[in-house]
Amino acid sequence: MPDETEKQKSLAMVVMSGDMDKLFGAFIIANGAAAMGMDVTMFFTFWGLRAIKKDVRTGKTLFGKMLGAMYGGDISKANPSKFSFAGLGRWMFNKMMGNHNVAKLAELRDMAVQLGVNMYGCQMSMDVMEIPQDAFIDGVKEPVGVGFFLLKAQDADITLFI
Amino acid sequence: MSEEIKVDLELDLKGLLCPLPMVKVSQNIGNVPVGGVIRAVATDPGSMADIPAWAKSTGNEVLAAEKQGNEFVFLVKRVK
């Protein structure tokens, strides 16, 4: 049995992917780690940002608005990395997961927020992709940079890149 | 198994898949007093590995983990 004074274990992960399958992995690991009493940090960058976004339009410039229109929406729009077939794959996997009683991606993410998982957007990706902090769901902390992540990763017992 | 153990809380985890059985035990352990016992019934075979791992990591104790037909029955004691 761990001693009371033992340092809390921690997990730090980068979530760069916006793929459905990879996001399932990321949130299942995050929830499991939080349940096991670990301090969990998720650093969302590039395609990973949509996983913490609300279903709102983003973008200020022409390109930003195009990106917002073509890759907009929220986590429910995530497609599998293989077998995508323009949305058909997502529908099929959602069906299969529903049949097997697996929680939906959005439910897993919201559970992670409830369990106290620390989620951060990458400031630089947010600037480039023109996704402001207020486009994120409640519970996402103020944006940070790579230095903050590296400090967390340096102290973490487990680090993952997804 | 251990008929004499007093159960403080029953948890129905049937139908739940990874990571939910472990998460539910974790969310409910605070609802029994220190020394108290949760009896949890799951159908996910993975929970046979996961719930003992959770207990080891959080410093709690699995008093029993048994397969009974298609179900997995756990007695989990809150240690601290």
The proportion of strand residues of chain A reads: 15-25%
Strand order of the largest sheet of chain A: 4-3-2-1-5
- Cα(first) to Cα(last) distance of chain B is 24 Å
Proportion in β-strands of chain B: 25-35%
Query: Number of DSSP helices of chain A?
Result: 6
Describe this structure in words.
- The complex is a heterodimer of chains A (162) and B (80).
- By secondary structure, chain A is of the alpha/beta class.
- Helices cover 40% and strands 16% of the residues of chain A.
- Chain A is built from six helices and five strands.
- A five-stranded parallel β-sheet of chain A has the order 4-3-2-1-5, sandwiched between helices.
- In chain A, strand 3, helix 5 and strand 4 form a beta-alpha-beta unit.
- The model of chain B has no long low-confidence stretch (mean pLDDT 93).
- Chain B is of the alpha+beta class and 80 residues long.
- Chain B is built from two helices and four strands, in the order E-H-E-H-E-E.
- The longest helix of chain B is centred in the middle third of the chain and has 12 residues.
- Chain B has a four-stranded mixed β-sheet with strand order 1-2-4-3, covered by helices on one side.
- In chain B, helix 1 packs parallel to helix 2.
- At the A-B interface, helix 1 of A face helix 1 and helix 2 of B.
Summarize the structure in short.
The complex is a heterodimer of chains A (162) and B (80). Chain A is of the alpha/beta class and 162 residues long.
Task: Summarize this structure as a short list of keywords or feature phrases.
heterodimer, A: 162 residues, alpha/beta, 6 helices, globular, B: 80 residues, alpha+beta, four-stranded mixed sheet, 26% helix
